[in-house]
Amino acid sequence: MSRSHKFDDSIRNPFFSLVGRRILLIMILLSGFFTIFTTLLQTYWDYDEAFDLVDSRHYEIEHIHADLLASSLWIYDLTSVQERIDGLINLPHVDYLAVRSENYLFEAGSPLDVSKMVNEYPLEYDDPDTGKIQRIGTIYVESNTNAIYNDLIQHFFITLLLNAIKTLIVCYLILLVFHHTVSQRVFKVAQFLRQYNPLDPNEEKLTLPRKRYIMEKEDELDWLAAETNKITQNMSTLYRNIMLERERLSDFTHVSSDWLWETDADLKLTFCSDPMRLAFDLNPNQYPHLDKLLSAVGCHQFMANLHRQQDFSMCEEIVPVEGESRYFVFQALAHHGIDGFRGFRGTGIDITALKTAQFELETLNHNLEETVDERTRELQENMEHLKAAQEQLVESEKLAALGSLVAGVAHEVNTPLGIAVTASSVIKDIAHTLNQAFEEQTLTSTQFASLIKQVNDSVIMLENNLKRATHLIRDFKQTAVDQVSEALTEFDVKQTIDALVASLHPETRKIPVTPEVSGEPDILMYSLPGVITQVVSNLVMNSINHAFDETDNPKITIEFERQGDHLYLCYQDNGCGVEQSLHHRIFEPFYTSKRGRGGSGLGLNLVFNLVKQKLGGELQFESAPGQGVKFMFLIPLSLSSQIARYASESKE
């Protein structure tokens, strides 16, 4: 019978189940063994019990009935003796009794000629008159042991038969339960796996049959079915991926212009792509040894790499293909197993076009050096022109700032001078009125007092505005001198910055904003005051031009303090701020957010260069959108002669 027929029969009939039959056989053998053992043990117990009953019966005759029989014989009550032994013969396990005395013999039952148990006890009478014990005879007892043996054997076989029937019935029922709960479900799993097709996209999931009352809601076989479904699904996915990769690799192999090849441990080709096969005119049914093929075309370096049986790459060879010498680069992976070297898998890439380009490039490089030298000289000249133009732009930016300062201060000075002119005109008119009244002798004391009061008020107004104009001109003069002069000098930091802020008032009032200056008084620096005023002026103008377009309460703070032998200067506003992505660009030359609206993009670049190159200081910048900007400077309080000399050379 074929395996498929056995499989089908095992599903239908539990007795065809190999596992079920084996379990049934084991259960029968084990149950039979324990049945025989327990039956023998029970028979042994019954044997002991039966012979104990015989012994107890003989004991009863010896100790109870023997005294009664002895009394009857002593008084010669022979009828009573016979009646007693006739009654005793009816007791179980008593088959023959015989009472013997000197002159009499009494019997009951028939003597046995089979296996028997025999006992003979003395008949003694205790004479109450003399007090002596008189022996008057014996009592002989026979019990049939053969019947006991027959009963025990019969009981043994009946018990064994009943246990065997019970065992067979129980085993059959267990076999049926096992068949429905285990065998059929295992066969269902096996049948599902036998019919499983990993390429069938509509493959149904495994569902096991279920019997009520003899199965749990979910048992180990249900777990096995669930895991089987997972495994088959994974196998289907894996198999489809493998087939897809195989198809993809096959397509790549056929359309690839590169050479793909594989050898065994003896360096015999086991696979090669079509371009390689066509190049060497190989028979696909009988590939040659690769080393012999390479020897024929003179690829000795390739052969040496193969014989080393190790990975190699960048092996360049010239291979004749269709009568033309072609350049190839070969590389391969050597595969090793437990039994040693197993072969190569490698590629060959046609680099003829690259080689041709390389030769042409080498030829071109010889002619390129002179061209590069010429272009380098032109580039250097252009860089020098660009540097000069940049310096000119920087100077223009400085002069433009100074021009703006001059225009602002001129406008600012016009106000107190205009008031002074007005006051002088008023004084002149009052003097004319006073002289005329005096000449006409119409001047009264009241009029005189009123005119004198007007003169005094006008004089005070004239004096105050002339002082204000003088102060403005002094601050402007100092600031202008500082901005155009880069000579080393000792100056008071607070006075210099205050004078600068005052000179910038025409610009700051346009917002309006008043810079707040706070710092330690009497800090003296031996440095370049014009550079410092230029730095602060550019920062203020940068805030005015860019920061406060959407700020309700504009504010600028300038703080400074001494830190060792350095001046720490912090400039901060509460304007619109700068995005994080633009932090690295704000100091770049010509970068501005108001291109075409008056911005040159050189203000902060000039600040950076002045602080770094002329003042020898350090600069840090912090900002976030909507939180203003913060510039922090650390400037030496005293410039060394080297820095001063470097600043002078930079100016030249």
TrEMBL record:
**Coiled-coil residue spans:** 354-399
**Keyword list, A-Z:** ATP-binding, Coiled coil, Membrane, Nucleotide-binding, Transmembrane, Transmembrane helix
Recorded hits in InterPro entries, A to Z, give:
HATPase_C_sf, HATPase_dom, His_kinase_dom, HisK_dim/P_sf, PAS-like_dom_sf, Sensor_dom, Sig_transdc_His_kin-like_C
Q: Which reaction does it catalyse?
A: ATP + protein L-histidine = ADP + protein N-phospho-L-histidine
Tell me which domain of life the UniProt entry assigns to the organism this sequence originates from.
Answer: Bacteria
Quote the PANTHER family the UniProt record gives.
Answer: SENSOR HISTIDINE KINASE, TWO-COMPONENT SENSOR PPRA
* Protein name listed in UniProt: histidine kinase
Q: Which organism is it from?
A: Salinivibrio siamensis
